[in-house]
Each structure stands twice: as structure tokens, then as C-alpha cells.
Specification:
- The protein has one domain: Class I glutamine amidotransferase (GATase) domain (Rossmann fold, 3-Layer(aba) Sandwich).
- The radius of gyration is 20 Å and the shape is globular.
- It has a 10-stranded mixed β-sheet. It has a two-stranded parallel ribbon with strand order 1-2.
- The longest helix is centred in the last third of the chain and has 17 residues.
- The model has no long low-confidence stretch (mean pLDDT about 90).
- A hairpin with a 3-residue loop joins strand 10 and strand 11.
- The chain contains 10 helices and 12 strands.
């Protein structure tokens, strides 16, 4: 939470320059508080595990957060019981008349497909265009980050020669940025993907700040300068055992998969892997919710702006 100090206190300028969250007295007295409304579009096949991971991170806030779980209407889930979706999830069609403070869009195991061949691609594009006008800030995770960079900036993903799999050290590229407040200069984050986005192509976009990269894993964290788009290429939300489950699954299917790097102690898959990224995961989400969402969102959300016809996905379902 912010510290509240006098508007003209000299220390305010020093602290602000260091990106310490300082709120002036005048702003504090005028500020009203209400619950944040966050939507979570869950594209992962194991929806229950993913929703638990993300809700854990979204709950790390002194603010009350109201969550709306969404799943794609134009895709039939094979791994989540229909009853679970019926009881706890809605579709974009059901909420498109609303505005939200924040939106999180998860990754999805569809990297081998061109974007346009994904069954729910038109629906996802509609969500992204709608969010530009009706969501204060959207966080895109893994494949969703690649999809958003393609939709909003025309950057195409590229196939990697082999799966990027493991827990990698990442280094901050921008200091005193709100999203990375409290981060160590070098921090760890899980990666699990077959595709990449060219780092130089992202750097070439004037509207985007590259915030963290890895020598081995490339781009990890970037954001549009207005904070409305946050791109996370890895999986900060993963539990300690998630990569182990992925590895066991791939081995069980007879796939030629290497051990996840920097993960199992002494590269021994029989040993329990530790989590080395949890603190930064909580920081990332709490910073996003505070700086990109809570401090920027209007007190009264109002009704959503309508989708233009060219991004209406209804004819494609």
C-alpha cells in the first residue's frame, strides 16, 4: 500500500524518483475505494489447476477482488468437467456488456498451430479488441502474450528448435519500473514453450518497454507504456511441481523430452524440485494490480463500449 505524505514534503520527490509508491494528501482525501473486478480468461486444458494458481497470486492484495472466470465459447474443453464450467465459468458473450478493471488471459497448448488455425482465434481476437476499450489493464501469459503481440503489433511468433523448458535466470532491463518494483536484479521464472517472439522486434516497438530478459529464454516481461498491456512469456503462476508433472506427462507419451533445466536438484527427476520463483511471482501480480489496475481504473466503470462489427466473432461459432 502507498505511504501518504504532505504534498510539498521534499522527500516526496526523492521517493517518487526511486519509484516508491507515494500518495499525496490531496489525492488520499479524494480517493474512494471499491472492489476490483478482474476477469480471468482460462485457455488452459487443466482449468482447475490453472485457476487455483492464478487466484492464489491475485489474492495477495489488501484490496477486495471480485473474480469472473471465463472460458472460450468456441472451443469444447476435453479436460475440465462440463459441470465445473457450468457452475463457475461464463463466456465472453455473457460479459461483453461489462467493463473490468483487469483481465488475465492464460497460455494454451496450441503453439504448434498458426494463430488463425486455433479454434477460438476469432473469439480471442474479439476479447482483445474489446479489452482495449473496456479493461484498464490486461496481462497476457505465455502463448497469450505471443498472440497479443501479434494482434496488437503484428509481431509473428517463431518456432524454437527444441522446447524451452525449465526455470531460467532473468535480468531486469528497466530500473524503477512499477511492474518490477522490489525485484532482484536477477530472478528466476519457469518457461515451458515451443515458440518465441523475436526480442528485437519487440524492442523496435516504440510503445513497448522491455522489462526483463534472459540469455537463454529471451523476452520474459514487457509492457505497453500506458500499462494497458502486460506481456509475460513465462509461467510465474506455476506451482513447484508443475514442470515435473509436464515432464512426466511427456515421458509417458513417449516424447523425446529433456529434463527441465535448472529445476530438479542435481538433475535427478526422482527428487522434489523447489520453487525458486514464488516471491517474484507474488510481486509481479501485486505490482500489476496496484499500479496498472487499481491506481489507473476509474471509480465508476460504466457500460462497455460495443464491439465493432469487424471483430464480432458470432458468425464463427
Amino acid at each position: 500500500m502507498p505511504i501518504k505524505i504532505a504534498d510539498d514534503l521534499p522527500a516526496r520527490h526523492v521517493l517518487s524518483a526511486e519509484n516508491i509508491f507515494v500518495m499525496s494528501e490531496s489525492r488520499a482525501y479524494a480517493q474512494d475505494i471499491r472492489p476490483l473486478h478482474i476477469a480471468l480468461l482460462n485457455l488452459m486444458p487443466t482449468k482447475e489447476a490453472t485457476e487455483t494458481q492464478l487466484l492464489r497470486l491475485l489474492s495477495n492484495s489488501p484490496l477486495q477482488v471480485d473474480i469472473t472466470l471465463l472460458h472460450p465459447e468456441s472451443h469444447q474443453s476435453k479436460n475440465t468437467p462440463a459441470e465445473h464450467l457450468r457452475m463457475f465459468y461464463q463466456t465472453f458473450r455473457a460479459v461483453r456488456h461489462r467493463k473490468f478493471d483487469g483481465l488475465v488471459i492464460t497460455g494454451a497448448p496450441v503453439e504448434h498451430l498458426p494463430f488463425e488455425e486455433v479454434t477460438y482465434w476469432n473469439e480471442l481476437k474479439a476479447v482483445m479488441h474489446w479489452a482495449k476499450h473496456n479493461v484498464t489493464s490486461t496481462m497476457y501469459i505465455c502463448w497469450a502474450a505471443q498472440a497479443a503481440l501479434y494482434v496488437h503489433y503484428g509481431i509473428q511468433k517463431t518456432m524454437l528448435p527444441k522446447k524451452l523448458f525449465g526455470v531460467f535466470p532473468h535480468t531486469l532491463c528497466a530500473h524503477n519500473h512499477a511492474l518490477t518494483r522490489g525485484f532482484d536484479e536477477t530472478f528466476f521464472a519457469p518457461q515451458s514453450r515451443h515458440t518465441d517472439v523475436p526480442l528485437e522486434a519487440v524492442r523496435a516497438i516504440h510503445d513497448i518497454d522491455v522489462l526483463a530478459t534472459s540469455d537463454d529464454a529471451g523476452l520474459y516481461l514487457a509492457a505497453s507504456r500506458d500499462g494497458r498491456h502486460v506481456f509475460v512469456t513465462g509461467h510465474a503462476e506455476y506451482d513447484a511441481h508443475t514442470l515435473a508433472l509436464e515432464y512426466a506427462r511427456d515421458v509417458g507419451r513417449g516424447r523425446d523430452i529433456a529434463l527441465p533445466r535448472h529445476y530438479f536438484p542435481d538433475d535427478d527427476a526422482t527428487r522434489t524440485p523447489p520453487s525458486t520463483w514464488k516471491a517474484h511471482a507474488f510481486l509481479l501480480f501485486s505490482n500489476w494490480m496496484n499500479y496498472c489496475v487499481y491506481q489507473e481504473t476509474p471509480y465508476t466503470l460504466g457500460a462497455a463500449a460495443p464491439l465493432p462489427d469487424f471483430v464480432d466473432y458470432g458468425a464463427h461459432i
